[in-house]
Design a protein that fits this description.
Among the domains are: 50 residues, no CATH class; 213 residues, Dipeptide-binding Protein, Domain 3 (Dipeptide-binding Protein, domain 3). Helices cover 30% and strands 20% of the residues. A five-stranded mixed β-sheet has the order 8-9-10-1-11, with helices on one face. α1 packs across α2. It is globular, with a radius of gyration of 23 Å.
């Protein structure tokens, strides 16, 4: 096969900055992932970018490239049984938990897709083109996409979807992400297959925002309840959804994408999701009653990693458990109290107790090592005496009693118990309020002190915009659970959002990280490693850092 070669001159025709990225990559200043991210952002196709920077090796666990050969070829048919909590599901734009999105994404799809390699590519789009000043983004839609009701997808559906995301009455977290759009009037239908976004401020993360899990493209006639009206462009249809019980998804016969065998995807006939807790899911995995489960805990990984019937696929992520403090409520409105609690984290001990060491230590900033612009800083030491002095300075010389709320379906109880014990010498008397996941997610933005599980985001600026900013009226955005808004932080974040040069953006991240460490609203002991654990009969399974279920191209070797 003839090797494709792309020159710097050809790169420059796409965008003048791409050759500079390439020079930084060849000089060792940028990683391959950072080069691919920058080049594809500026319009170079993922295929040509990969040709310019070929991988020296590909991890089999990351892509499952050898699955077809190993299994003797693709097999069609069969059922995949998945264990995952099924909560209230209505408007996809309101999704605030990944379990619901993992149901919806089998039926609906996104304009872009961020892969297991953390690179974002067009999906329902043919391509995107950004102006040099990043203020105008033109989205070119595929012309071969159909909904499961037979209608073709076009610009009307995309404009309608943006309108739902930007409607304050819907309550979508997309509203905070898309703060660079004043409203639906900034989303222009150019023609039936072209949409143009007119930004009020530059932002490099538009492609990533379009894969935020509430951002599935809705049919133009959608009325607000996806269970009642499950119309989407995806490869499966939703046949049954019973909250807290089960969901059934069936293969769509007329899906628009083709498989490697030349026939329409998906390969599986059916997906059945059963709503059971993690302990029951592990037992069901071990006894072959289900084939996979949502986000195995470290204890689950330990129990199943040596089972010869199961395949374990790890992924490094920006997922974490933030100890978050509402700064609009006493005592957390006092930075000294917040910092005192942060100083009570023995991060290494918490990682070992709660996660068997399967993660990366963190400072108290929501910016992970997997982010292209991550700035490495020293890990703070456990300092209960320093914390005790801060509490006394804040007016609590005899200590402070607080309630810590969280959920019980992942590693939060172990983190909560460890923090309770570690903070006691500093004078914190922590009462634990631990409920099932539904009991926490129903109030996660309201509790004064909590531990919240945050999902992976490919870019740090994306996550910071979701969780630590205010809207145009100065009110914290819907997912700003801490109510923390810092003017200097917001100014630096907006600058980072429009900074194309990765090293310059890394410098801004250094400042943002330091602000969060010095006066921010969270403690964060470690970044999670996650695992996809699936029965060995299923091939082409991928472990996504966001714990997204990507089942379209999965097949069962014994259908």
């Amino acid at each position: 096969m003839k090797k494709t070669i792309i020159t710097k001159a050809q790169m420059g025709k796409v965008h003048p900055l791409i050759p500079e990225y390439y020079e930084q990559f060849t000089a060792g200043k940028l990683s391959r992932r950072e080069f691919l991210r920058g080049a594809t952002l500026l319009g170079l196709s993922a295929t040509l970018a990969a040709c310019a920077a070929p991988a020296t090796q590909v991890a089999a666990t990351a892509v499952g490239a050898s699955d077809a050969a190993a299994s003797g070829g693709i097999v069609r048919g069969g059922t995949l049984r998945n264990a995952m909590q099924l909560q209230l599901l209505d408007h996809p734009a309101r999704l605030s938990w990944i379990e619901g999105a993992n149901v919806v994404r089998q039926v609906g799809e996104y304009l872009t897709e961020t892969g297991v390699d953390n690179i974002t590519r067009p999906y329902l789009l043919e391509k995107w083109v950004a102006s040099d000043d990043l203020l105008t983004w033109t989205l070119y839609l595929r012309k071969d996409v159909t909904f499961n009701n037979g209608d073709s997808m076009n610009a009307d559906d995309v404009v309608f979807s943006f309108g739902e995301w930007l409607n304050p009455d819907i309550g979508s977290s997309m509203l905070g992400l898309l703060s660079y759009l004043n409203g639906p009037e900034d989303v222009e239908k150019v023609d039936d297959y072209t949409v143009r976004l007119h930004l009020n401020s530059p932002n490099i993360a538009v492609p990533e925002h379009l894969f935020h899990y509430p951002a599935i493209i809705l049919h133009r006639d959608f009325e607000g309840d996806f269970v009642k009206q499950p119309i989407g462009t995806g490869a499966f249809t939703l046949e049954e959804y019973s909250e807290g019980e089960r969901a059934v998804l069936k293969r769509r016969e007329d899906y628009w994408r083709m498989g490697e065998d030349g026939q329409p995807l998906p390969y599986l006939d059916e997906i059945i999701i059963v709503s059971i807790d993690k302990d029951a899911a592990v037992a069901a995995m071990q006894s072959n009653q289900v084939d996979t489960m949502y986000i195995p805990r470290p204890s689950d990984w330990l129990a199943m990693k040596d089972n010869p019937e199961l395949v374990v696929r790890p992924a490094q992520t920006s997922q974490c458990y933030t100890v978050r403090m509402r700064v609009d409520i006493e005592p957390w409105n006092d930075v000294r109290v917040r910092n005192a609690l942060k100083m009570c984290q023995d991060r290494e001990k918490i990682l070992q107790l709660a996660y068997f060491g399967e993660g990366d230590l963190s400072i108290d900033a929501h910016i992970a090592p997997v982010a292209p612009s991550f700035c490495e800083k020293p890990i703070p030491a456990y300092d209960p005496q320093g914390a005790k002095a801060l509490l006394a300075e804040a007016g609590y010389p005899n200590g402070l009693k607080v309630v810590l709320s969280t959920k019980n379906d992942e590693a939060e109880p172990e983190i909560a118990q460890a923090l309770k014990e570690l903070a006691a010498p500093a004078g914190f008397d922590i009462e634990l309020d631990i409920t099932d996941s539904g009991g926490y997610w129903d109030r996660w933005t309201e509790v004064p002190l909590g531990i919240t599980a945050w999902a992976h985001r490919p870019l740090a600026v994306m996550l910071l915009s979701l969780a630590y900013t205010a809207d145009s009226d100065g009110n914290p955005v819907s997912w700003n659970e801490t109510r923390w808004v810092d003017d200097e932080f917001s100014t630096l974040l907006r600058k980072a959002e429009k900074t194309l040069d990765l090293e310059e953006r890394r410098g801004l991240m250094c400042q943002l990280e330091q602000i969060m460490q010095d006066r921010g609203p969270i403690g964060n002991s470690f970044w999670k490693r996650v695992w996809n654990i699936t029965n060995k009969k299923f091939q082409n399974v991928k472990s996504h850092p966001s714990s997204y279920d990507l089942f379209y191209e999965v097949w069962k070797s014994e259908a």
